[in-house]
Amino acid sequence: MRQITLIIFGIITLIACTNRSVSDKRESKSLGINNTEVQKVYIPKCFQRYLKMAISNSYHDTTLTFRNSISNDTSLLIICDTNQINYRIEKVLLESKYLPWHQTKGFYSFLTCIKTYDDIKELGFFHVQIETTKAWEVRRFRIKNYEVNGLICLPGVVNEFMSTEEYDSLEKVPVEL
Fold it and tell me: Which of 77, 121, 137, 167 has the greatest number of CB atoms lying within 10 Å of its CB?
């Protein structure tokens, strides 16, 4: 059942990526850019990566479609569907202090949309070991009105989002060894 879910997720992502020009034009209007410039700059070039995703303590084979980050950082990929993660949401996360370090030798990272409800999006941040292609979620973000308003630092272990204020206060507490 999980493999079927992963295959369906991959197909939906691929279909959404082929229809990306409509969402790019909508995004370009909000950024104040005309469509000619959008075609030169903002239409993502999508590519597929084979992965072994960690789901319920086991790895499942899947293929996902990604685009490069707007920061041109090759160690961070974004799910190709700009309806799920548009450039504005990506920029909010890239500029936040909540995105964990992702430039580790032998790894790359990616962001994908886990679920959307009302005007809230839950985004997963994954690390992928290049050698084994194994991927696991290391952080989950809750985005509302283009602001990070919650996060989970250990997805799969912790299920409740903590507020950014709570995270900030925990970050200031010194760790005793």
Answer: 77
Q: State pLDDT tens for residues 101-110.
A: 766 788 999 9
* Complete DSSP assignment for 113-155: EEEEETTEEEEEEEEEETTTTEEEEEEEEEEETTEEEEEESSB
Write phi, then psi, for 95 (nearest 5 degrees). Answer: -90, -5
User: How far is it, in rounded angstroms, from Cα 168 to Cα 175?
Assistant: 14
Cα 36 to Cα 28, 33, 87, 158, 161, distances in angstroms: 10, 8, 17, 45, 41
166: how many CB neighbours lie within 10 A of its CB?
12
Give the tokens for residue 82: 């700009």
Q: Whole-prediction pTM value?
A: 0.71
